[in-house]
């Protein structure tokens, strides 16, 4: 009995000791580091422990360390437009405009999932060595969802094209993959940029005032941003320019009234880099940096990609322009993102903690990059079905042109680095057997119109592949595209005159042998200048590190081309409004009625498809309804292939309605002679338009048409329906 009492006493003492030690540990662990608590409570606790000076030091992208609270320095500026960028080895996917040409949002989500996996791995590896470097973090300033409204804009290549619906769908898919699906932790943070009404001119972006009415603002320029907010994008970046006189970074109507109050955005707002400096230096709408700091925070900015908030925030408070409560509100938004990323939790509790070197640039990601590049390339011409080449018919191939072996033409801008980039010469060479002769010559440069190489060799080859076009130094962001004559933008749609002259010479040399033109660019190009000289034309965009292999796959028929243009290819720019005019009238397939080279959504295939309706529409729909249609697709050609079924709406004949508008799309893969079905759904409320009189969305009753086809100009099936109040 005595023994039992002693054992019980001992157990009680041990239990008390454990409880004491546990409570001591709990007491020593700050509340904001307790992962079992809500994020809002943890943020509130951390705020209570920070001094005003410390709070201000955290408001810039170069966030300062607070050692006494265990807060390390962190650089918020990180890029991942089409792969982790500027951070060493990473998989380089096709440029954003090329990925949009896939019309495959499911595939794009796979891409951004791979990107965030590599990002987490690189972050883990850097932090393990106590490295807190720019571009090695988890807060990514991507995607760019501005509308590519004018073909001159150099940065249009970073977008998903000219259509708000396509941009919203593709951008949302990218965000979902980048941020992950864990219920507690963000895999990485995505940013919808540049908010708002921002698409050139590049040379004057720091002082430009975009004039736009409420209808175009809501229906075109804000549409995709709203879609990404609905899909829980973590961050929004304000743009450099003004909108109707107000710089975006101090625009309370946009950043607070619409973004937060109307749309319910609960992430953080970051400025574009140096945008706050522009407010007083170039826009000159406020006289001093101190006033800008106060105006930005009061308008809804939380994080500054410059140093104004950190340098002048205290001064703004001392001058009575700002309160500590204002600072707390901004900092709370930033801290919430940090908590979602797991910065203050035990790393082992994070589901992404184990990602390491084997998650970066691996075989699976390379295969994905190749697949995306395959689906992005657009076949514009295939005279007499010259493509695909049957390998056994060609004993010698000439690959020629200024972009045939160009690294820049593969990787575009905002890119990573890779030791495995396969250019077009390498892709073609690697695809044929060792008994096939492949030659390469630069052929021409971007300037000289009289001296050419490779033309004699092309005449001796069975077939020639000429890779021409633009590069990211000819079109792109101000400062980066240093060979652009317009501060990053294009003055014309023309290819370099040297390339046009070169194609003429090539045609003379190869005579009746096949000549395939491959064009690299991120925008609308005047293809007609070289079209007469090429038997087939492939638009390859800037296709990423597997672009050479993807081109070879298409050239030799391993896959049928299935890319579709996410923008209109105009015949020339004479029918377009002035570049600085932001009114949508006369722009994009939605409002343009003039002649085009190739319509929005266009893309040829090696095979053909037949459409039949599998279901009928109702006669009349109301706002709460959904227009749903099933379409039977049959591959009626001689190759396996993918079709992208596009659904457009034609509206009642009311002033300022679009000519037509993409409202659904679906890609389907079909083997030769096989059939499949796709179901397309369009919520009727998505057909609402902005009413300038009431400043609200309005569903207009009347007669509508559903148009199904493979481009905006294709009408394989048409169904009428009415919308009632």
UniProtKB/TrEMBL annotation:
Q: Which Gene3D superfamilies match?
A: Glycoside hydrolase family 3 C-terminal domain (3.40.50.1700), Glycoside hydrolase, family 3, N-terminal domain (3.20.20.300), Immunoglobulins (2.60.40.10)
Q: What organism does this protein naturally occur in?
A: Mucilaginibacter rubeus
Output the Gene Ontology terms for molecular function: alpha-L-arabinofuranosidase activity; xylan 1,4-beta-xylosidase activity
Family annotation (Pfam families): Fn3-like (PF14310), Glyco_hydro_3 (PF00933), Glyco_hydro_3_C (PF01915)
| Signal sequence, renumbered to the chain | 1-27
Segments forming domain Fibronectin type III-like: 643-712
What's the protein called, per UniProt?
Glycosyl hydrolase
Q: What is the lineage of its organism?
A: Bacteria, Pseudomonadati, Bacteroidota, Sphingobacteriia, Sphingobacteriales
Entry's Gene Ontology BP terms: arabinan catabolic process; xylan catabolic process
Is Signal one of the keywords UniProt gives this record?
yes
For this UniProt record, the keywords arranged alphabetically read as follows: Hydrolase, Signal
Q: Which SMART domains match?
A: Fn3_like
The similarity comment for this entry is: Belongs to the glycosyl hydrolase 3 family.
The family database entries (InterPro entries) matched by this protein are listed as:
BXL, Fn3-like, GH, Glyco_hydro_3_C, Glyco_hydro_3_C_sf, Glyco_hydro_3_N, Glyco_hydro_3_N_sf, Ig-like_fold
């Amino acid at each position: 009995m005595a023994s039992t009492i002693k054992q019980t006493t001992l157990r009680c003492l041990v239990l008390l000791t454990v409880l004491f030690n546990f409570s001591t540990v709990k007491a020593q662990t700050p509340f904001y580091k307790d992962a079992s608590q809500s994020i809002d409570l943890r943020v509130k606790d951390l705020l209570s422990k920070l001094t005003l000076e410390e709070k201000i030091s955290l408001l810039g992208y170069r966030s300062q360390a607070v050692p006494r609270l265990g807060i390390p320095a962190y650089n918020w500026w990180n890029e991942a437009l089409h792969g982790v960028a500027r951070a060493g080895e990473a998989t380089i996917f096709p440029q954003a405009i090329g990925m949009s040409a896939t019309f495959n949002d499911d595939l794009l989500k796979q891409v951004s999932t791979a990107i965030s996996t590599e990002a987490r791995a690189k972050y883990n590896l850097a932090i393990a060595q106590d490295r807190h470097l720019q571009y090695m973090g988890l807060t990514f300033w991507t995607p760019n969802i501005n509308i590519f409204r004018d073909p001159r804009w150099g940065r249009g290549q970073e977008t998903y094209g000219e259509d708000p619906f396509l941009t919203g769908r593709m951008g949302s898919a990218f965000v979902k993959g980048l941020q992950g699906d864990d219920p507690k932790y963000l895999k990485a943070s995505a940013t919808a940029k540049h908010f708002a009404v921002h698409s050139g001119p590049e040379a004057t972006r720091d002082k430009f005032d975009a004039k736009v009415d409420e209808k175009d603002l809501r229906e075109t320029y804000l549409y995709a941003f709203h879609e990404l907010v609905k899909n829980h994008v973590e961050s929004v970046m304000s743009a450099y320019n003004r909108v109707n006189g107000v710089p975006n970074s101090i625009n309370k109507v946009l950043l607070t009234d619409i973004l937060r109050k109307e749309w319910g955005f609960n992430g953080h707002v970051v400025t574009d880099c140096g945008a706050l400096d522009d407010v007083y230096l170039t826009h000159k709408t406020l006289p001093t940096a101190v006033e800008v700091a106060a105006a930005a925070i009061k308008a809804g900015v939380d994080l500054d990609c410059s140093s104004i908030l950190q340098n002048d925030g205290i001064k703004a408070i001392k001058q009575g322009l700002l309160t500590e409560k204002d600072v707390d509100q901004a900092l709370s938004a930033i801290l919430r993102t940090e908590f979602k990323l797991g910065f203050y939790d035990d790393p082992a509790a994070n589901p992404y903690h184990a990602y390491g070197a084997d998650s970066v640039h691996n075989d699976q990601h390379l295969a994905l990059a190749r697949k995306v590049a395959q689906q992005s390339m657009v076949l514009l011409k295939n005279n007499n079905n010259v493509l695909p080449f049957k390998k056994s018919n060609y004993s010698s191939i000439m690959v020629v042109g200024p972009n045939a072996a160009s690294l820049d033409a593969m990787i575009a801008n905002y890119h990573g680095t890779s030791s495995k980039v396969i250019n077009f010469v390498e892709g073609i060479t690697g695809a044929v057997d060792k008994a096939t002769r492949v030659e390469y010559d630069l052929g021409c440069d971007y300037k000289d119109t009289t001296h050419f190489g490779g033309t004699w060799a092309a005449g001796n080859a069975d077939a020639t592949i000429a890779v021409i076009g633009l590069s990211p130094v000819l079109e792109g962001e101000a400062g980066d595209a240093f060979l652009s004559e317009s501060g990053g933008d294009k003055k014309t749609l023309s290819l370099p005159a040297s390339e046009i002259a070169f194609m003429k010479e090539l045609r003379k040399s190869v005579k009746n042998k096949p000549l395939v033109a491959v064009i690299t660019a991120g925008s609308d190009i005047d293809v007609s200048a070289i079209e007469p000289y090429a038997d087939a034309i492939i638009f390859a965009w800037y296709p990423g590190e597997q672009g050479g292999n993807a081109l070879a796959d298409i050239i030799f028929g391993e896959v049928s081309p299935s890319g579709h243009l996410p923008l209109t290819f105009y015949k020339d720019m004479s029918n377009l409004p002035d570049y600085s005019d932001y009114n949508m009238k006369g722009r994009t397939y939605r409002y343009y009625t003039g002649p085009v080279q190739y319509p929005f959504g266009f893309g040829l295939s090696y095979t053909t498809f037949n459409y039949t309706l599998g279901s009928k529409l109702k006669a009349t729909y109301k706002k709460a309804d959904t227009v749903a249609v099933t379409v039977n697709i049959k591959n009626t050609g001689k190759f396996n292939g993918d079709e992208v079924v596009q659904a457009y709406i034609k509206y009642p004949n009311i002033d300022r309605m679009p000519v037509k508008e993409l409202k659904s799309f679906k890609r389907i893969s079909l083997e030769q002679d096989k059939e499949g079905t796709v179901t397309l759904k369009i919520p009727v409320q998505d057909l609402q338009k902005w009413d300038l009189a009431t400043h609200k969305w309005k569903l207009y009753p009347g007669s509508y048409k559903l148009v199904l086809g493979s481009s905006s100009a294709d009408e394989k099936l048409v169904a009428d329906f009415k919308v009632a109040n």
